[in-house]
């Protein structure tokens, strides 16, 4: 038992695990292999960097390599783990210097994250076309958006940055119009960001409303919020092609069920955000079990089906609080929390990674939206429920108090048992943070009747007597009872 | 069974009950006796009216008498119920016209509310001295604060208002300095209100920190918030006397344990907010059971110990979610919810009034504070718990996101079981509304370990990866485990 705890990937899950392990087992050895140059960066902060709300890219880094070193973690950047031998309990590592070696482990954590899918688009060869899934892309987009003579190279103030790519993008003429391909939350955030930078922005979304996992009530209000700020939203508008040889010139939209191209929108920038998928190549062929979304299936302690091999973060499943089944909802807290729990477990203190409730929040200018649990009726039915739902509009504060704003709450419950299955909230006044009340209720297996009786805070500046959540519960409960 | 449902008191609890009863039993008869002229007013809104955030007093009324009439409720204002005969099932009513009659009931709801205590101060004979516990007082304070030639009589635009009192106060010279006696939440709100109206305000609080039920972390930050806006806060400063013959001239403060007067602060206005107590006179001598705070003890359906007699709102107890025992926490949602449940029960649909968690929120300028459950160690011990607590300071948003603000979270748990007993939150960015997450966790009997694993929303504009609540749970859980 003298081999180290080996971690693959130096972002949220990997470094949380390594840090917690070192705190719990100060004499233990942990080696973190990271194939790239970047570590511990705030993926979720990239749109706000592009928007200009954040001045320096370095602000998006939680930990520097020297911080990691101070924690007693043996961090090896530029070191890709290319193979795992679970029987021999060792990994094969290739470095950017061309070295190749094997490393034995006592325990292994695979925290390889996810990568942006581009659908059938290949953005690599076209100037002005991007995906946003790493810091180099964020730096490149930020540079591309600026006028060549107005770009401040200090914005990309991290040594790891691909400076050549930044410089090349900074030198190009600034775009005036942009297509955001995909109206999920990254799409919405990027649309706001590019609009804040002065571009005329088009968002193209394949289905009928933006932010599909947030439900229609949220999608519609977010669409209104974007349009109110000058963003043009195209729903039921699948982008069929990016047009342009060297530089992007237009996007082509399929307008009907046959996919016939009916429209071409000229743009001089495109950001493709059509989804992500888990990075699982490392464990292909090892016999490991995979689960929802093709992610690595793990148990309630983050263990894979291979002995002493854990997985966490965007490459792994997590147990859904509503269904009790493994699901794949790659988000930041899940990664941090699972990593931390696995670090404790490996150090000898078995710790649950915790369920996920699918909690997510997003903003579009001043409109805040959030969702939790199961909103989609088909998904609820597939999990064996009889979904009943209601959407209400209620005030965020007492009606007489300045700033009271219309807040839409959707609740979904099981008609048989009354159990709360999911919910969404959208509005302009403290709307998103209210989702945590629903998330807590869902994790506690509460019924809508119990939610209706919750003693939520009432104070005129923050909430009316009946909080919008209580109003929604009251209406939905009436429907279930009646 | 042909006698009506009789309700005593036409505010939150009484009118909620009457309205719900009529909706559920459209053929049923309900009579509401109200001794005064006012009905259905937003007590909690009065400080914001005084502050000038609300232009018209009529905005604070939820329902007008004609609204009530349209609901099929027989509302009798100026009709005081002076006696209850629970054996004969009838009440005695005296009207302001001098009539006296008896009214039989099938079911009776006592919703007589609470009244401000003034301690040993008699504010009635002294101009410039007030308590704030009804709309006439709010109108009088608002008029008194204005310069005589600048007062807009349209602000008190409700026919029920005591116009003579308003006019008399409006005619007096405007005050320049005010004493707020009592630093509970009404005191804090009134201090802000009077400061917003341009007065130099002193708050005098008997104990060591403001907002005693919110705990020290909140009290200290709220004190800082008030001081930052020019309000002078005196803690450990019990006011011993209001000085002045016709008009208030000063307050005298007892400075040490012997109560020797050590200070006299000249003021030309004083608002006394040292607490409220339940209006229970009506049921004295009936043999009804009383409970916490001297309030009328009720069961989980709002029933008193007398047959067919219910009580709800500020005059009644409610079951505390942490202790399971009847408690007295007079707040608006509790009254509305209990009234509504009793209306349904009387109409034939037995409905739980629901537990209380002692949830309360308050603001002091831009600082928001909230509390829930049991925070006081002595109270926790008295309830059989072994309280352990922690206060952490954490960011309200991702550190790089503009507007991230320091948020203090205090959690209290039972050291034996890990069960969450109470919490408080204070900060300037969406702090108060976060209390609902803790309230929901408390009502679900969650442990701190379970709170630590909650899947709360993470989005940089609203919350860091580890929400301040999760940070606090993590630290407290470490203390309990360790």
From TrEMBL, chains A, B:
Residue ranges annotated for the Pyridine nucleotide-disulphide oxidoreductase dimerisation domain, each copy included: 360-464
Presence of keyword Flavoprotein: yes
Residues annotated as signal peptide: none
UniProt keyword Cell cycle present: no
FAD/NAD(P)-binding domain location: 5-319
GO molecular function: oxidoreductase activity
Assigned keywords, A-Z: FAD, Flavoprotein, Oxidoreductase, Redox-active center
Cofactor(s) in the UniProt record: FAD
Domain of life: Archaea
PANTHER family: NAD(P)H SULFUR OXIDOREDUCTASE (COA-DEPENDENT), PYRIDINE NUCLEOTIDE-DISULFIDE OXIDOREDUCTASE DOMAIN-CONTAINING
Protein family membership: Belongs to the class-III pyridine nucleotide-disulfide oxidoreductase family.
Protein name from the UniProt record: NADPH-dependent 2,4-dienoyl-CoA reductase, sulfur reductase
Species this protein is from: Halorubrum xinjiangense
